[in-house]
Amino acid sequence: MATTYCSFKLHTTPEKFYIEACDDGANDVLFIDRVSSEMTLAVKKDIPPSAVTRQICGIMGTIRLVAGMYLIVITKKKKIGDLFGYAVWKATEFDIISYKKTVLHLTDNQMQDNKTFLSMINHVLNTDGFYFCTNYDLTHTLQRLSNTSPEFQEMSLLERADQRFVWNGHLLREFSAQPELHKFVFPVVHGFIFMKSCYINGKMFDWILISRRSCFRAGVRYYVRGIDSEGHAANYVETEQIVQFGGGKASFVQTRGSIPFYWSQRPNLRYKPKPQINKTVNHMDGFQRHFDSQIISYGKQVILNLVNQKGSEKPLEQEFSKMVENMGNGMVKYVAFDFHKECSRMRWDRLQILVDKVAEMQDDFGYFLVDSDGKVLMQQEGTFRSNCMDCLDRTNVIQSLLARRSLQSQLQRLGVLHVGQRIEEQADFEKIYKNAWADNANACAKQYAGTGALKTDFTRTGKRTQWGLVMDGWNAMIRYYKNNFSDGFRQDSIDLFLGNYAVDEADSLAPLRVQKDWKFLTLPIIMVVAFSMCIICLLMAGDTWTETLAYVLFWGTASFGTAAIIFYNGSEFVDAPNLVQKEKMD
Q1: Helix (H) or strand (E) holding 17
Q2: How far apart are CA 440 and CA 38, in angstroms?
Q3: Residue 261 to residue 385: CA distance in whole angstroms
Q4: Rounded to an integer, what distance in angstroms lies between the CA atom of residue 32 and that of residue 551?
Q5: Can you give the C-alpha Rg of the chain in angstroms?
Q6: Taking Cα atoms as reference points, which of 401, 405, 384 lies closest to residue 455?
Q7: CA 199, CA 56: separation in Å to the nearest integer?
Q8: CA–CA separation, 296 vs 298, rounded Å?
Q9: What one-character-per-residue DSSP string does 502-551 give?
Q10: Within 10 Å of residue 477's Cβ, how many Cβ atoms?
């Protein structure tokens, strides 16, 4: 594999950025011209003594905003652990540096727009969960990496990366076009990584959990659902569980993703907006593309659809089942499990029904296993593709149970567990396992829905608790607020970061200055005033009770009437995206 530099210094002058490779024996310097944006290679002696110097951890990439080009660098990192001897890092702090020395060339409106775009980029960078490795490919599973050609092995990390999981792919487009610069950059994945050395029976093994979020059809909970015309599903995540012991390695992969046809669920101030299936498009094209891609990447597919089979979710379940049947592909099986119905009244032990139902399929898939000599003993022949509505809470619970079942077999095969021993009986490891999967749920949920996951008390403890229900209620309230009143900005931020929206310096940038309808400000003010007057009339009674009742009725009717109008026109009062392309909104 072509080497990628690990350590850097950024030298800045008014005319150029000089990014110096500080690895032992390295003499390369990347020049970036701050006027022409041209990138070239030079040597250390070309750095002028007058340059301002600082240590950086890596280059995230570049992006064009209203004020021109910006360089995004990683300024702080935290070591997560070692994966097969390679250090894995979490990027924790970033800096966005303008090529231009001043913004005085901008109008007031342009300065304001540029400031908004900068806050969007910062918003994405401040979303926890960016990981990188400078000398190991984090974008591919263990099995994919073992089935590669010598040519693939010689490629740079950037060239060989699975583009689905390269979150700085758009930012690195200029670097990608110049192969000689690849040694200065690396792919950054978004999601969750946990690594720990664990003990069972006095034997130490490494247990790793990696969730890779796709940057295709990326977005937030209610604004990005279903699939696009290329078959990319919303909130698509590949989760790989790896165990290493005595030189042997085992891996088990699962995926999750939104129900893969064209549907939406726009926020409209209601707690749970009704899902809408698009009746004007041919669903089968995108659906077929999605599963063709799944089969090419992972082999056989077992769909675990965990949505409710009654109420507003029922049509989605029925449509999904019908489309799998119509597709008629023997490589794809469909299993519906009404999670909420089966586990109602805290009967979470009933999840075992689903695990038992798919046990034979899981055994048929197997897992990836390689011995200490590098000989492949087993390949994973298929994956479970799990989903609920958000592919967060219910999905994570089921994935953790299936992953444990696979791990049970792997640890016995590797000689860590004795015959007859169960993971559930290993108290120390069981605690690590449950907490890691709960942390995985929280990370994926924060990145998509804006809050931590629900139902993590079960993942952490193996049972549902009253306190867990209280925390779920709290997180559900925060989700309601964010989904209705801040997710438009979050969606715009993601689209800008990933290149779904490109800033045109010559454009008037009207999208950021959409005028709100008069109702947006007027009606909430009327409602608040009317409700306040109603409370005041109750607290400060009039001369007679009939007079007080009349006032209370008048102001109460005004407040509730206004609230009814607001909810009736709910979609006009939510924070909607301004930059999203049409297909995202379909």
Answers
A1: strand 16-21
A2: 40
A3: 14
A4: 70
A5: 27
A6: 401
A7: 36
A8: 6
A9: ---TTS--GGGGPPPPHHHHHHHHHHHHHHHHHHHHHHS--SSHHHHHHH
A10: 12
First to last CA, the chain: 41
CA distance 530 to 274: 30
- Single pTM value for the model: 0.91
Q: pLDDT in tens for each of the 586 residues of the chain?
A: 567 999 999 999 999 999 999 998 888 999 999 999 999 998 888 899 999 999 999 999 999 999 999 999 999 999 999 999 999 999 999 999 999 988 888 888 889 999 999 999 999 999 999 999 999 999 999 999 999 888 998 899 999 999 999 999 999 999 999 999 999 999 999 999 999 999 999 999 999 999 999 999 999 999 999 999 999 999 999 999 999 999 999 999 999 999 999 999 998 888 889 999 999 999 999 999 999 999 999 999 999 999 999 999 999 999 999 999 999 889 999 999 999 999 887 788 899 999 999 999 999 999 999 999 989 999 999 999 999 999 999 999 999 999 999 999 999 999 999 988 999 999 999 999 999 999 999 999 999 988 877 777 766 776 667 777 777 788 888 888 888 888 899 999 999 999 999 987 666 555 776 666 656 667 778 878 888 888 888 777 666 778 788 878 887 888 888 877 777 776 777 888 888 654 454 4
What SS3 state is found at 90?
Answer: strand
Cα 531 from chain centroid?
40
**Do the Cβ atoms of 164 and 65 come closer than 8 Å?**
no
> Counting beta carbons within 10 angstroms of the beta carbon of residue 8, is it exposed (0 to 12), middle (13 to 18) or buried (19 or more)?
buried
Tokens of 149: 């050609």
Whether residue 307 contacts residue 389, with contact meaning beta carbons closer than 8 Å, is answered with: yes
Q: What number of other Cβ atoms are within 10 A of residue 331's Cβ? A: 14
Q: What angle do CA 424, 425, 427 make, to 5 degrees?
A: 90
Tokens describing residue 520: 């947006």
**Both tokens of residue 202?**
């006095």
Q: What is the number of residues in the chain? A: 586
Between CA 498 and CA 503 the distance in angstroms is 12
Amino acid type, 130? F
> Which residues, 6+ apart, have CB-to-CB distance to 375 below 8 Å?
none
